[in-house]
Amino acid sequence: MNARSIRARLRTTTIATTAATAMLATGGVALATPAAAATRPVEIQATVLVLDDGQPMVSAIVDRLAKEGVDYEKVDLTSASRPQLTPAFFASQGWLTTRAKFMGVVTPSAEPASLTAAERATLARYESTFKVREFSAYNWPSAGIGLENQYSGAVDGMAADLSGAAKTNGFEYLKGSVTFDDLSPGVSESYGYIAKKAATSNGATYTPYLTLPVPGTGENGSLLGVYAKDGREQLISTVASNASQQHWKVLSHGIVSWLTRGISTSYSRNFLAVQVDDVLLPDAEWNAEGNCTVGDDCDPATYPETAPDATSRMTAQDVDQLAAWQRTNGVKLDVAFNGAGAADQKAETGSDALEASLLANKNEFRWINHTWSHPYLGCVHDDSTTPWQCAKTSTGGINWASQATIASEISKNVAYAKTNTLPNFDAASLVTGEHSGLKSLPQMPADNPYLASALTQQRIKWIASDASRESEPRVLGSATTVPRHPMNIYYNTSTKANAVDEYNWLYTSRADGGSGLCEDNPATSTCITPLTQDGFDSYIVPKEKQIALGHVLDNDARPHYAHQSNLTGDRILYPVVEGILGSYRGVYADNAPIVNVTTAEAGTQLVRQQTWRARSSQVQATISGTKLQLFNNSFSAIDVPVTAPSGTRSGLSTFGQSYGGQSSDWVRLRGLGLKTFTLPTATGFATSASWDTSAAATPATPSAPALTPGTAKDGTSTRVVAQPVADSDLIAAAG
């Protein structure tokens, strides 16, 4: 019997028992289902309904729901075969409870024209009956939603303020001000309607959540706020964004929290880890004259590895700076080290000031095994061709690095850590040189076949991979991969001048003196105007900060990685990380600090997210009064993400960890297990209700007017779209 059958059997047993009890109470006569719906305690499924018409704002909120783990069901409004939104679609009346299928609703606008009049009326009745909130993604301001338009146009670069009402209703994690993206001054990136509150009647109210000055007036207007009438609450957005924009990443968590009343199967944190590879080794340096890397693709006769500035290696002073920087900024930059670098230096000179300084400051750092000497642990290189190929054995097979070689590289570096009693060192975590051993196109479409067994032999649990090649974790022997985001602060640059020169070589056209790679690969690269000498600070730092901060705000635990060369010379890594921290801390409140994860913590989080995406359908979450219940209808245990209001209890214990004004954690739910949480106060959802599923229960409403064309923005480019409908009569009729 499968899990679905068991769940059905459990429900059948419950119904049969209830019916039998009823028969005994009435002298053995079974009670018939009541002709009219009666009031019952309400049980609400922790699922968000998304009515999707394909517009970017709906796609953006779906993206956020998915990244946080919130359960949602999407209805494609453009499909002729979509389900009809009848009363039975939304809820059902049972013997013991009234069951509501959705805890929140996302709509394209306050009155979606893609719905029939009856569907709009049923939706309004459902939300009013069960006190289910709605996020209305993009709207034209009108009296029907409590607004009067004051400005239409781009809001790029404008600073918006959160109201006090917002900061106590889902947006507690923010300080209060959010600036809209303005990445390209010549392009309108976000289109909005700034509106003031209109006169309302019949008890309707509009509460601004996000306001900003109306250009040319000095008065404030609203872009986001709550329209309430007849028991309904609609969070009205009059600005368009997409999932990639930073301001949306900042605001969207609050929208989800408001929509779900802070109760959902979700877990959200803002993670940041930066791992610095090659510590103790020298790194080859970019040569601006030859547009090549010394010791790699430079002509060794013209640019020898022994030439001055051909390599860069941290100094003792750089270590002191790293320790001081960490203390000042409250974030660790993880040290991925290669012990052979110190051994080689001492063999050549008799001492190593870098190693001495690192060991003197060893308690300041988190240490990661980067193998002993950083060899390539995939196939043996055949450099006789460009690009290189995998060397072949005498029998024609691929010549792989052996299991003994891989194991030795791991174990020798572990021995170095033990000999020097490195603290904060996890021997079960590993970064191979260049992520080698793992599959890497075009030369290696598969892993080194000896890698998995070597990892198992050395008891490795986590091995770093390149997120630009494979973004999801996977199992390899005893280990699981932890994808890392590469940073465009290159391993072969220690100075701003070299960083700018290499950037220009990679990202400018041949006519501008570049390599032309951007011309040859338009699908993955865009040519830029050559950067000037100040281009590192004016272009590269803001660009890299934007990319990395986007990962931080995406509930993405993947570490970033750079190299030791970036911490010497001009120390070019620091401005990027400082920019990330500065931008973050300027917007987020102290109750939502950046979470500085280790490799193991990042891997654990990524595996949990991946598993939850695959198995979320096996868990049923329901809310009834002050009870949140989780039921695992599969045979095997699963980690479930849970977010609930602060003060929620699990048994006799306080639930979760406090973050951003809420409590959240991962909960282990055994096979066929049931777990109950006690919420601190009434949730705001209806606790008792009746629900008539007959068609006559829902009054008819007028048909929606036709959409009129208007110009709007989708966040990346200008396009002609259907203008949000101003349909106050519809809303009044449905309310």
Largest beta-sheet characterization = 9 strands, mixed
* Strand element count: 39
Separation of termini?
47 Å
Total helix count? Answer: 16
Strand content: 15-25%
* Overall pLDDT confidence: 90
Helix content: 25-40%
SSE class: alpha/beta
Signal peptide: 1-32
Keywords: Signal
Biased composition (Low complexity): 696-712
Protein name: Polysaccharide deacetylase
Describe this structure in words.
With 735 residues, the protein is α/β, with parallel strands linked by helices. Helices cover 27% and strands 24% of the residues. Strands 1, 4, 5, 29, 30, 32, 33, 36 and 37 form a nine-stranded mixed sheet that branches. The longest helix is centred in the N-terminal third of the chain and has 23 residues, at 3-25. It is globular. The protein starts with a helix and ends with a helix.
Secondary structure elements and pairings:
Elements: H1 3-25, E1 40-45, E2 48-52, H2 56-68, E3 72-76, H3 87-90, E4 91-93, E5 98-100, E6 104-107, H4 117-130, E7 133-136, E8 147-154, E9 159-162, E10 177-179, E11 191-197, E12 205-213, E13 220-229, E14 232-237, H5 246-259, E15 274-279, E16 283-284, E17 286-287, E18 292-293, E19 311-312, H6 316-329, E20 333-337, H7 340-349, H8 353-360, E21 367-369, E22 381-382, E23 389-390, H9 403-419, E24 425-430, H10 451-457, E25 462-466, E26 475-476, E27 479-486, H11 496-507, H12 517-520, H13 535-552, E28 560-563, H14 573-587, H15 599-615, E29 619-624, E30 627-632, E31 638-645, E32 649-650, E33 653-654, E34 657-659, E35 662-669, E36 674-678, E37 688-689, E38 709-713, E39 718-722, H16 728-734
Parallel strand pairs: 1-5, 2-3, 2-6, 6-7, 7-14, 15-20, 15-28, 20-21, 21-24, 24-25, 25-27, 27-28
Antiparallel strand pairs: 1-29, 1-37, 4-5, 8-11, 9-10, 9-12, 12-13, 13-14, 16-19, 17-18, 22-23, 26-27, 29-30, 30-36, 31-35, 32-33, 32-36, 34-35, 38-39
Helix pairs in contact: 2-5, 6-8, 9-10, 11-13, 13-14
